[in-house]
Every structure is written in C-alpha cells, then in structure tokens.
Amino acid sequence: DDDDDDDDDDAALGAAKKYVNPKQRWKEAAASEEAEAAKRKEKENRAELEREREAAKEKAQAEAAARKMTNKLRAKYLKELNETSAEVVELMYLKRTTLLMWLDAPDFAERVTGCMVRICEPENHRRSYEMGIVTGVFDFRSPYQVDWAATCKGLLVTRAKTKGVLRLEALSNLDCELDEVAALLASLQKPEDAESGGPTPMDKMMM
Fold first, then answer.
1. Three state DSSP letters for 98-147
2. Residue 184: strand, helix, or coil
3. How far apart are CA 64 and CA 46, in angstroms?
4. Total-model pTM
5. What is the DSSP string of 44-95?
6. Cβ atoms within 10 Å, residue 61
7. Residue 164 pairs with which residues in a beta bridge?
8. What average pLDDT does the segment 47-62 reach?
9. 9: which of 19, 22, 95, 106 lies 20 to 30 Å off by Cα?
C-alpha cells in the first residue's frame, strides 16, 4: 500500500510539473511572438539597408558617368569656341549695359531670349561668375535702380544646375570666358542628343 501511495505521489508531482499556468503560457507565447517579430524586423532592416546601399551605388555611378560626359562635352565645346570667331560669341552674349540700353525697346523680350548672360555672385568674399541662358522676361512689381536706369524688368535664366529670376544688377558687364561658356553648353546638352549627334545648345542659339 505504501508503494501505491508513493506511485500516486510521483504521478501527482509529475502532473504538477507539466501543468503550466494559463497566464504563464500567455506570457511565453507573447515573448515568442515578440522574438519572431524582432527577427523579421531585423531581416527587413537589413534588406532595406542593402537596397539603400545599392541605390546609393547606382546613383554614384550615374553621377560619375554624367560628370564624365559633361567634362567630355565641355572640352569639345571649348575646342569649338576657340575655333569660332569672337564676333559669334559676342552675338550670343549680352552684357549688362547692352540690356540696359534695350530696356525701352518694344521687342526687348524677343531680343534677349535665347542669349547668354554672365551672373556675378559673391562667394567667400570673392566674386564668382557663371553663365546662363535667358529663357524669358519677368516684370517685378516695383522698379529698382541699375546703374543709370530704373526698371521693373528681370530675366528668367537657366544655369547649369538652377533656374530662376534675376535682377539685372546681378549680371556682369565684363567679357565672358570661353571656358564658362563651354561649361554652360555642356551642362545643357541632352545625353540623347550628344549620343545621336542631335542639335546642341550652341546650334539652337545660332538658329
């Protein structure tokens, strides 16, 4: 009988060990789900990081190819400009004084659109110059003074990396550098036109 009692005690102890409180079972299940979710999140983060790395790599390669193409076109245009007569460049480039003399012309917008201007901007206590192409004329609400003239006119100008409205006072009155012109033309050249031999920005300005 004593042996039977011992067997009963062992069975009861074994059942007690196997018994898991429902609350404890819920905690363990929740912890397991959290662990799995953390693993999935980590895997997703790694995949996202890899995609970002690939995108950054592709972007860097594209930018490097674009710079290479731009530098190649810049050298090409500089060579062409050096072989072009000074009069041709002068026809394409407008100084500030020329613009001021044309202010009252009824065809002012037609005269200046498509021509190049040289933008002067301060940079690190020095003057920085960049060429741009006039794409239109803009009228400010209030007149402003430029040299001897008062005007409301401004120019819509496209540059290598930006476009916007400029007041005439921002334009240079000095001769432009051929390398500056070549840099502008190279930046405006469409890749498909460069590869197919299509019209260049210089061709379009001369039309």
1. HHHHCCCCCCHHHHHCCCEEEEEEEECCEEEEEEEEEEEEEEEEEEEEEC
2. helix
3. 27
4. 0.61
5. HHHHHHHHHHHHHHHHHHHHHHHHHHHHHHHHHHHHHHHTS-HHHHHHHB--
6. 10
7. 157
8. 84
9. 22
Tokens of 9: 């005690």
Hey, what are 1's tokens? 């009988």
Pick from 119, 96, 99: nearest CA to 165:
119
**SS3 (DSSP) at 171:** strand
CA-based nearest residue to 153, from 184, 92, 125, 112: 112
Give the residue from 196, 161, 185 showing the smallest Cα distance to 74: 185
Pick the closest to residue 133 from 161, 119, 114 (CA basis): 114
Q: Find the length of the chain.
A: 207
In degrees, rounded to 5, the angle at the alpha carbon of residue 7 between the alpha carbons of residues 5 and 8 is: 65
Inform me whether the pLDDT recorded for 199 exceeds 70: no
pLDDT tens digits for 64-89?
Answer: 777 777 777 778 877 877 777 777 77
Residue pair 87/111 in contact (Cβ under 8 Å)? The answer is: no
Query: Phi first, then psi: what are they for 139, rounded to 5°?
Result: -105, 120
